[in-house]
Amino acid sequence: ADVDGDGQGDACDVCPNDPGNDADSDGVCEDTDNCPGTANPDQLNADGDGQGDVCDACPNDPDNDVDSDGVCGEVDNCPVVVNQDQADADGDGLGDVCDICPNDPRNNVDGDGVCGDVDNCPETYNPDQADVDGDDQGDACDVCPNDPDNDVDSDGVCGDIDNCPATSNADQADSNGSGIGDACEPIADAGSDLTIISGDQAITVLQGAASDPNDDPCTFRLVEGETELSTWQAAGENGECHLDLNTVPIFSSGDHTVTLEVDDGAFTVSDDMVITVFPDPEIQLITAQVTGGGGGTGVHFYVGDTVTFSIDYEITGGDPQAQYEVTGVAVPQYPYCTNNKRRARTVEYVGPGTHPISFQKAVPACADDPNHGPSGWTDVKWRVDLRTEDGIILRGRDGLTMDEALVIDGS
C-alpha cells in the first residue's frame, strides 16, 4: 500500500500521507505540519488558527486580517472595517471609521446616546439635553440651571436668585427689604419732608443725596409721579442730588410726593419725600384807628397829648404750624402846617394791639400858617393821618384803610 503515492510503501514511509515526505525537514510531515513549506519543528501557533507562527502573516490574529486592509486584527483599530490609515482622532484605540464617538475618548460614558464631545452633561445621563439658561451645561448637571453665568461672583448663590449677582454676598443681607443686597445696592436719600408756603418755592432747594457701597458713580433724577422734575444727571462729588424748586412749575397747595431715583449702572433705587405746600398767608384787617387826645370834632390832638394807635387783624393761609407777625411803622402827619415842621414821635407796631403816640411841640413854628401863627402852639389842635414810612395812609380823617401797609414776617 502507498497511500500518498510517493513510491514508498506505507509500511516503510515515514510520512505515509505526505508525498513530499517532510519537504521542510523540520521532522513534521506536511500533512500535519502547520507550516508545510517552512521549517518549524516547534509548530508554534499563537493564535490557534492552524497556521504556524513562522508562516502566519498575522500570527496573533486568528482571523488573519479579516477586513483585508493590511492590518492584522490584533492591532487593527477597526478589525472588521477597512481602514488602512488607522485614523483615531480621539486616541481611544478605536479607529474613526468604526468609532461611534470618534471625538469622545470615553465613548459616551454616561450611556445616554450622546457622545461626550457634544454632550452638555458628559458624565450625567440626560438624553434630552435640556439647557434652560443656554449656558451649554445641561440642566441635569448644571449647579445653576437658571443662571447662564453660573454664580459669577462665587458666593454660593446662583445669579437668578442672588440679590447681588455680581458682588459676593453669601449672607444675602438686605436691610431695607428692597430685594437688592446691601453689598451692591446704591442708596438714595431724598431728604427730610418739607413744609413751605407757595411764595417760598422759588428760594427752596431739595437736598437729596446718593451713595454706593462699591463707590460706583451714580446718576439721579427727581420725579413727581409720572412728571419728571429733573433729567438724569451725575450726582455731585459728595453724592449731592439737589434740585432748585425755582426751576420747576409752581406746586399747587397740598402734599406733593417727590421721588429721588439713583442709578449706579447696575441697579436703580428710589426714596420719597413729601413737600407740603400752603397758600401764602394773607392779612385780613379788622380795625385800624387813632383814639385819645383833646376835644373837638374829628380826631384832634394837642401838643403834649398822648394818644393811641390801634390795629386788629387776622391772618389767613400760610403754615398753621408757623408763627407770623405783622410789623410796621406809623408816622403822624400834620395837614395844618404846609411846611410840615410840627413833630410827633413815630410808633412801631408788632402784632395787633394798642400803641402809644406822644405828640411834641413843633419847632420852628409854621410861620406860613394863617390860622396858627408863631405863638400859642399849646392851644392848637391837630387832625392827623397815620401813614407808613413810605407814605401809605393807614387811617385818617378821610377814613382810609391800612390794608397795603401791613407786612408779614413768618417763622
Strand and helix layout:
Layout: E1 187-189, E2 194-197, E3 205-211, E4 219-224, E5 227-234, E6 240-244, E7 254-263, E8 268-278, E9 282-292, E10 300-302, E11 306-316, E12 324-333, E13 347-350, E14 353-358, E15 381-383, E16 385-388, E17 393-395, E18 407-410
Parallel strand pairs: 2-8
Antiparallel strand pairs: 1-3, 3-6, 4-5, 4-7, 7-8, 9-11, 10-15, 11-14, 12-13, 12-16, 12-18, 16-17
Task: Provide an overview of this structure.
The protein is mainly β. Helices cover 0% and strands 27% of the residues. The chain has no helices and 18 strands.
Write out key terms for the chains shown.
mainly beta, 411 residues, five-stranded mixed β-sheet, five-stranded antiparallel β-sheet, rod-shaped
Helices and strands: which structural class?
mainly beta
How would the global form be characterised? rod-shaped
- What's the end-to-end separation, in Å? 151 Å
Order of helices and strands: EEEEEEEEEEEEEEEEEE
Q: How many β-strands, per DSSP?
A: 18
Number of DSSP helical runs: 0
Range of strand content: 25-35%
Please outline the major beta sheet. Answer: 5 strands, mixed
- Low-confidence parts lasting 5 or more residues at pLDDT below 50? 293-304, 331-346, 358-411
The helicity comes to: under 10%
Mean pLDDT level? 80
Main sheet strand line-up: 2-8-7-4-5
Radius of gyration using CA atoms only: 58 Å
